[in-house]
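As a warm-up, study this chain.
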Amino acid sequence: MKSRLLALLTAFSLAVTLAACGDSAKEAADKAAAASKAAADKASADAKEAADKAAAAAKDAATATTDAANKAMDATKDAANKSMDATKDAANKAMDATKDATKSGDTMAPKK
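Now compare it with the structure written out below.
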């Protein structure tokens, strides 16, 4: 009977120990799950913030590119206008010089 009582007490203590460990493990698992969820939420928020910053940077870059293209276009227009004006001036001066030469007679023509 003593051996049966000893076996019963051993089994009972083993059952109590396993039950206690089972509750600790469940609590630890719950804590780990909560910590994992919190970390995932933080990572998600950080990823969203990074995506928002990247989108803002891309928008700023697009704006800067558009501004640079507009400035280049304006500079090209100005250069073309100045070139056209210089060509007109040169043509007018050449025409005036031709008129002056024609008015003064054929000074370049050989004398008879």
